[in-house]
Task: structure prediction
Amino acid sequence: MNIILLGPPGAGKGTQSDLLVNGRGLVQLSTGDMLRAAVAAKSEVGIRAKAIMDRGDLVSDDVVIDIISDRLDDDDTKAGVIFDGFPRTVAQAEALDKLLSSKGLSLDAVIELSVDEDALVSRIVNRAGESSDARADDNVEILRNRLVVYKEQTAPIIPYYREKGALKTVDGMGSVEVVASAIASILDAA
Ligand code: AMP
Result:
């Protein structure tokens, strides 16, 4: 079973992915984690991606599509994957469709975690207000930028999957357990 978890930064995609990895033996494919590993390894891709990631902008579609394509060739992904933080643009969604069909794979569900973005921002702003870390204000600005980037570049993939009849929306503002059980019901029916 291959699924996509969609939602703005802070919606809980990582937490829910961890639960699915442990509960269903799926492999998490987080392009953010893979890019951070490239940055840490100071690879060519990592060196180019770092400044973009630090601003909260998106790295180029080609880079992430290549990373995902290579990763899907690894044997462990045959058990099924959770795409976490990918696709993030309509071009990536289209490329993923092509990639999956060329590899003989399918997409079983696209799950959107819908959250109140104002609540996400105020949570971060409050945390920054309580913090003595000078970087906290920068973090608020970066988060705001990440939300703008999500709205402008990533949210258009929601109608893309809705039109294909693949989209399921879960209220992401509930507790971790409530959200997990809503996701479980969708996957059990898929
Ligand atoms: P994440 O951990 O998913 O929030 O990703 C951290 C950062 O990595 C993002 O803010 C982007 O700069 C970059 N990134 C991760 N996934 C993608 C993607 N699918 N397309 C473009 N940039 C990405």
User: Anything to note?
Assistant: The radius of gyration is 17 Å.
